[in-house]
Design goal:
The structure is a homodimer. Chain A is mainly alpha-helical. Chain A contains seven helices and three strands, in the order ααβααββααα. The first copy, chain A, has a three-stranded antiparallel beta sheet. In chain A, helix 3 (43-50) packs across helix 4. The structure holds a DNA duplex.
Chain lengths: 176, 176
DNA sequence: GTTTGTGTTTAGAATATTTCGAACATACTG
DNA sequence: CAGTATGTTCGAAATATTCTAAACACAAAC
């Protein structure tokens, strides 16, 4: 790799990953290194290049493989694991949308459900405060469900229009 | 607020926010509290309810206001600042997409540009390694630019189709 | 103009996360 | 089977983040 240019790239990827909320700075640097390297790189070489311990690279690279940003490949002459950067960013993005964003949205929905159930124990549904809470929970749940459906559609290759998720009030979002 | 139900909700929002990559657990709890509260709540009351110091709430609530998840309102009889949850989640989502995701994508693009510029200093463009690096940088930049354009379109209310950002090879993505 | 109520800043304590090196496990080599 | 090369796990050290209480700043009240 062209050395000085490489340093710029690693720094940049590190910063970008660090603020992404999904991966860490070091993972960004690892990816940056591999991405500019034509041949697969061994764990020790990565550790060397980034001035990190082998164990730290081992841990962090697992996350990268997990998100399909890096592939583990075996190199004929060597017993070591080697790694190369994936180039299918689209796939990575889908993975993140599925496993991070949608997971998060479902968590919100589940929380609304559970809260509503718990609230039902405490107060009658004619209670003014109870009605207020129910209405708020509904609004939030609906938003989350809408975005979730939108991402799902997008993942499957369909177009997503904002007002489909947003503008239309409630009943349009029925299952069928 | 219905007490037990509230606790469930705060916990859930805390967890959801914590894994969101944008806001913190505490900010999730603050939002959760305000969201189920019909009336604006003072800073000290929030600190009380969440068992946190006033200063901590002060710091954390600033982020919430920043992302438009919470509004500061003034309550007639009182000198204190009061806060209420915003209900326009759509707006919040746009804000996050603009200020977080797109910012991040631009950072990637800028890094590619700068790396390419730096690489140009070091090696001739006929150099095999140099060509490889250039090609990779192009691919990454193009992906980032595509997603960026997609989000922009979405923000403006237009539909976004995956293959527009992804499938079509390069030249379709011209400015006009 | 002093006092009182309020939000913010700050310095350090508490807590969580990252990183390292050593110990360990496993699989290949001879 | 003994020995070596390799990746992973583990406990401690280093670092970063979150949180608190006290000091501060500012405005309203008296």
């Amino acid at each position: 790799m062209v050395k000085r240019a490489g340093a710029v790239f690693l720094e940049g990827m590190g910063a970008a990953f660090a603020t992404s909320g999904v991966l860490s700075q070091l993972q960004g640097r690892i990816f940056g290194l591999l991405y500019l390297e034509p041949e697969p790189v061994s764990l020790d070489d990565i550790a060397d290049a980034l001035d990190q311990s082998k164990s730290n690279i081992s841990i962090n690279i697992r996350g990268l493989v997990d998100w399909h940003l890096v592939r583990r490949v075996s190199v004929p002459g060597s017993r070591r694991d080697h790694y190369e950067a994936a180039t299918d960013f689209w796939r990575v993005m889908q993975e993140i949308m599925e496993r991070r964003f949608r997971w998060n949205l479902r968590q919100v929905i589940a929380t609304c459900d559970e809260t509503e159930r718990t609230a039902a124990e405490g107060a009658s549904s004619r209670d003014k405060e109870r009605r207020f809470v129910d209405q708020r929970l509904d609004a939030l749940r609906q938003f989350a469900a809408g975005v979730d459906a939108g991402i799902e559609a997008f993942s499957q290759g369909n177009a997503v229009s904002p007002d489909l998720m947003h503008g239309t009030p409630a009943k349009k979002r029925k299952k069928s």
